[in-house]
Amino acid sequence: MPNGQDTLCWLERAGDFFYGGNTGNSTVSGYRMDAQGRLALTNEAGIAAAPSAKSQGVIDIAVAADKFVYVQNATSGTVDGFHVGRNGALTKVTTVTDLPAFAESGMEGIAAV
Asked: Is residue 3 pLDDT above 80, yes or no?
C-alpha cells in the first residue's frame, strides 16, 4: 500500500494497527486493519510520527503490550517511545539518547517486552 514515504523497512502490529519505519525520510507510517483484514493509512499524510533532529535513520520498530511503539533511530543513536491512541495516532512519550550510532548504516535491532 503506498504511503507517500520513502523506503518502508519494517512493520509491527499493535492491536488493530500496524506501524512501519520509513528509513528514507525517518518517518513512521500508521495503518489500521478493518474487520475484513484490509489495511488503510491511519491518516491521509501517511505519517504517524514525523522525524525530529533526534529521530534520524528510522531502522527498526518494536511494540509492547499493544500500547507502546518503540522506534530505533540508527543514525542519531536514539530510541523514541510512543503511546498508541484509540484512533492509531502516536504520541511521543520519551526519547532515549546517547545510544551507539553508526556514521553510515547505524545500529540495527530492537526488542520490547
From this structure: no
